[in-house]
Amino acid sequence: MSRHSADSPSDDDIGREQEYVSMLYQRLDGLREQASRRLTEQLRSTGGTLQARSQRDSAVRMYADQVEQFSAVESGLCFGRLDRDDGSRHYIGRIGIFDSGGDYDPLLMDWRAPAARAFYLATAANPQGVRRRRHLRTRQRKVTALHDEVLDLATAAPGGHEELTGEASLLAALDAGRTGRMRDIVETIQAEQDRVIRADLPGVLVVQGGPGTGKTAVALHRAAYLLYTHRRELSTRGVLLVGPNTTFLRYISQVLPTLAETGVLLRTQADLFPGVTARRTEPAATAALKGRPVMAEVLAAAVRDRQWMPDEPLEIELPQQEVLLLDPATVRAARDRARRSGRPHNLARALFDVEIVHVLAAQVAERIGADPLGGENLLDEADVAEIRRELREEPEVRAVLDRLWPVLTPQRLLADLYAEPDRIAVAAPMLDDTERALLHREPGGWTPADVPLLDEAAELLGEDERAATARRERIRALQREYAEGVLEIARGSRSIDVEDEFEGGEILGVADLIDADRLLERQEEVDRLTTAQRAAADRTWTFGHVIVDEAQELSPMAWRLLMRRCPSRSMTIVGDVAQTGALAGTPSWAEALAPYVADRWRLEELTVSYRTPSEIMAVAAGVLARIDPALRPPRSVRDSGADPWDRAVPAGRLAAELVTAATAEAGALADGRLGVIVPDGLVDELGAALAAALPEAAVGEHPELESRVVVLTVAQAKGLEFDVVLLVDPDGIEAGSPRGASDLYVALTRATQRLGIIRPT
Ligand SMILES: Nc1ncnc2c1ncn2[C@@H]1O[C@H](COP(=O)(O)OP(=O)(O)OP(=O)(O)O)[C@@H](O)[C@H]1O
């Protein structure tokens, strides 16, 4: 029984709300124009003291952000109204807007403000001082519908789900056709989701939930909430959100901007080592091995192996001098002292050099300072210091030092290790022959599983001057991108400011006022970067908060990397251990987190699936039981009225039958998207057949998700959703990997409306 009563607002109500909403949009336009004008003013101003320039660059950043934000919240600016028992009334929207008059009355309350929370939590049983909750639906700037809930047990209407907030608006959102881009859920956040979104900032929060329970949506809204609520703390260190692959990041990329937040760094694991683009592929077994904790030991041993111990004395021939000798005992003593310092390899090299040069200088001094009369050595300490200085400069000495203790980049260390079975044998005695063979490969690009290893290597090696130079270059490239972005924003708003200010005179575009190079130079003068720019370019950056989506896929080595990026351990970890596809992924949160926080983490569970209708969830539940009989599927919030169909076809007719089914389903879609999920081994063949028959079908490594028909493997489909899904060869998917049942569970739960299964016989 519903504990809310719904009454029907009239056309007059719609008219009144339209007036209010139009007023809000007018105010939004005013704010955008003001920010745009100020941006142009700031771009135009030049010179001044360093401090003045610094302030001006902050202002440029602030106004550019504002122009962007005011544009991004255009759609659905205001979506709710709370009428409270005390007669007060609040409109709820994507951002806060205040009256421009003297007293700054709130006209629109940001959904993240504490007082807006009742919009998501108030129920008839616990109305929290709210009498009526109104949902406003708008299209562009027009109010198209209202839906009211009166929170009064006495007038509660029968039917519906008592635990849902704003049920009618929620169901409308769930039934709407998909677009290929994730939408925000700010209008219809449910109570269990709100609890996660507004959970405290410190500590590790794990959000476990089955498919379609809104984990991704909640993770994104939590990022927006945390930035709003803890802006001072988080704006300096930034927030990092890690997703499983670039297709997924494109899928979610619109959500934070529409919540007026642009300061979150979105990255895949493959992008977390600045300067490396990890797009190479490798067998799943190799990736799994590289994810194991033992690889930390392998890398440490690989570094030690590069600290070379000669068996024989080394001869160093200096021009016009006798040959110097470096015996193994000296090298060993120098190596041990350098190691004992505990410094990373590259930084310990200086200590090693001191020891070796000291011994060589003693040899030289012995010879040239020898008293022909047999007395004490004729050289004093200053002379010997000068000999040491000269020896350091000798190319022959440097060459020997480089050979004994080479300065290494992480890339060099790892590429050399993979390329040489002998090196692997020395570094990995704890692995067996088959495992060692998995690590061997020729140089040429990096895989996602290499990224945590590069990071580990960077820790072991320490940063040398070359790494610092490379970082500065990356920062410069990002700064340039930013400078161009600011000018783009200013150009986009040119009609307003330039026409106002240069009426009748010569019209100057922003490009005439300043170009990207000049803006970039100016930024460098005062060393001003956005947090995201610094963080993206700097491997050693530590974030204020880290959010990980599909976190079950992370290997132990990837967890090590992420924990380094977040020493405060303020993290939100979102995923579903039943959907783990990666062989090195985690079947247990406790296991993944124990090395870093022991049992000091909080668990929140999401239990309702908003995506997957009950008919499809019933099929998926059978697979879930095969993964682990103790696991329970989430409850579906709705039925679709369409039972999944399951058709066996002769293997030779698979492509033809799929094309027929896909053509029929694509034709039946009013709007919305069709996803075709196929086993890895069939994606090329079936993708080509579909693309030939349906030119709109998107196929490939990074398919365009906004296409009406998209062909994907399970790994690509992770985290995505479609109105209709055609699933090909479920048995092949299940048999295709040791985690095949989880892959099938993922594939079965991608549809919001209908599912069809085609299996070859
Ligand atoms: N409160 C809500 N209001 C409207 N839509 C919602 C709500 N919660 C979730 N949804 C919708 O349900 C769908 C599934 O959400 P989401 O992708 O975040 O789930 P998930 O738990 O991450 O799923 P998976 O584990 O399969 O990746 C999305 O379309 C999302 O917009």
TrEMBL record:
Keywords: ATP-binding, Helicase, Hydrolase, Nucleotide-binding. ATP binds at residues 209-216. GO terms for biological process: recombinational repair. PROSITE patterns: UVRD_HELICASE_ATP_BIND (PS51198). Residues 188-613 form the UvrD-like helicase ATP-binding domain. It comes from the Bacteria. The keyword Nucleotide-binding applies. InterPro entries: DNA_helicase_UvrD/REP, P-loop_NTPase, UvrD-like_ATP-bd, UvrD-like_helicase_C. One of its GO terms (cellular component) is cytosol. SUPFAM superfamilies: P-loop containing nucleoside triphosphate hydrolases. GO terms for molecular function: 3'-5' DNA helicase activity; ATP binding; DNA binding; hydrolase activity. This is DNA helicase IV. It comes from Micromonospora nigra.
